[in-house]
User: Fold this.
Amino acid sequence: MQTTSLNDAQSHADWHYVLQEFIQAYRYGSAGGSSEIRRHLRDVQRRITRCVSSSPSLMEQDPQTKPVCAHLGRALDNGEQERTQSFIRALAKITDQLVWQYGYDKMPRSLEKKYAYAELLGPRGPIVCEDLILGLVLFAPRCNYPAHSHEDITESYLCLSGTISENHAGVYPPGSLILNQAGREHAITTSDTEPVLLTYAWAGEPSALHGFEMTFSRGRVTTKKR
Assistant:
C-alpha cells in the first residue's frame, strides 16, 4: 500500500474535486428550516475543511468490487440526469480506485448482491481523517436494508441517484439529505426498478470512528464500539 500526500494536486486532482463536492453540498445544502440539520451540515463542512487543510495522507489501496457493482454504471448514468450531476461526474473519475466492501463478517444472502459501501475518507483511508468518515453506499433495486443504528455516531445520507425510503416514512429523490442522530434506528428500502447511490457522512469522536463494528442479529444490524 502506497501512501502519499493528498496535496500532491498533480497526482490526486480527482480526489480534491470529490472533496470539493462534499464541501459544497454541506456548506450550501438546505436545512429545510431544521436547526438540527443545519448544525450537522456546518459540523461536517468544518470537519472536511479542517481535514483538507491538515495535508492528509492518501493511501492508494487495491480496488475491490462486490456483486452490486454491476449496478454502478446505471446509477452513475441516472445521476447524470439529476441536480447531483456535478457530484456524480467527480465520483466517476475515482470509481476504478475504490474498495467496495460489506463491513460484516457474515452477510445474509438477501444482501450479498444488493449492497456494498466504499469509504472515501476516514481513519482507514483512503484519505486519512480521524474524526469523520465519508463514503458511498450502493443499493440494487428491490433492496431492503434492515433496521440499524449507530452508537455515538451522527450520520447523514445524501441521495445522488435513484430514490429511497427510510423507515417507510417518506421518499427521497436525488439531492435529498437524511439525518440520523446517534442511536436513531432506521431502515432503508429502494425502488423496484432502479439502483440507488448515496454518499454518507459519519461524524463522531475518533474513538467511535476507529473502533466500530457492524453485526447482523435476528434480521437487524448493530453498529457499536469494539
Q: What stands out?
A: The mean pLDDT is 90. Residues 33 and 120 are 29 Å apart (CA to CA). Residues 61-225 form a domain with the Jelly Rolls fold (CATH 2.60.120.10). The radius of gyration is 16 Å.
